[in-house]
Amino acid sequence: MSDVTKFVPDLANPGKMKLVWSEFTKTAKMIMEEAMALNDRGVHFPVFGICLGFEAMVAVAADDLEIVEKCEKCLGYNANVEFKDTTNSRFLSALPEELRNFLRDQKCTRNYHSYKVDPEKFAQNPRLTAVYRVVGLSPASDESFNFVSIIEGRRYPFYGVQFHPELGARTYFSLDAVGFPDLNKTARVAQAMMNFIREEASKNENRVEFALAKRTGPDWLKTTRAWWSASHASAWHITCGTKSIMQLYAFQS
Known about the structure:
Elements: H1 2-5, E1 11-13, H2 23-40, E2 47-50, H3 52-62, E3 68-70, E4 75-79, E5 82-83, H4 90-93, H5 97-105, E6 109-112, E7 115-117, H6 119-123, H7 126-131, E8 132-139, E9 146-153, E10 158-161, H8 165-171, H9 183-201, E11 212-213, E12 236-240, E13 246-250
Parallel strand pairs: 1-2, 1-12, 2-10
Antiparallel strand pairs: 3-7, 4-6, 5-8, 8-9, 9-10, 11-13, 12-13
Helix pairs in contact: 2-3, 8-9
């Protein structure tokens, strides 16, 4: 892993798959341990998790897969974000006030996940709270409960979102815009988040020197949702498909 990370400025974990102790979660655990070790040695090495990547980051830190619970009311809808820590959050501070207000007041984040993290159970897990703070909550599709939607590392530059910010950028140029209140602002939120992760990654000397795209498995798995690549940023994406097939994508900036 260290041979890989010396060429890579940051790691990002998107994906959609059942969360079990599989090759995906074992790899996520290895990634987080390596990222912690790098930061402990003085290398500013950020990690950004989206959806399943977010869930894996939480489960690995808690050392408990059951912290991530089945959710039947979290699939295929847009939601707003209730902020819990705007004063100390590096992640939220990178967003202009206009966009923070947009996230807070409008249903502009796309949620497409079958699992959730309960904020009370999060708060009751000392292993988890030692690593992360809750930055935002979002409501279920029927607003009957809230789940954790944004986390941020206390000591390390680790960030995770349960929703899909990359869809906000993609829908601006497509017909998949159903339910978004303002496509321009939605795309700007995605861009601002990407810019923040890119700036975090630029704080180390690692650089992607080549592009690698190992594409195996079913046809649908061969297409990457690399929103960083379209924005000229270097990143590694770790995603997983059926039968624990791992794919690594590196994009040259």
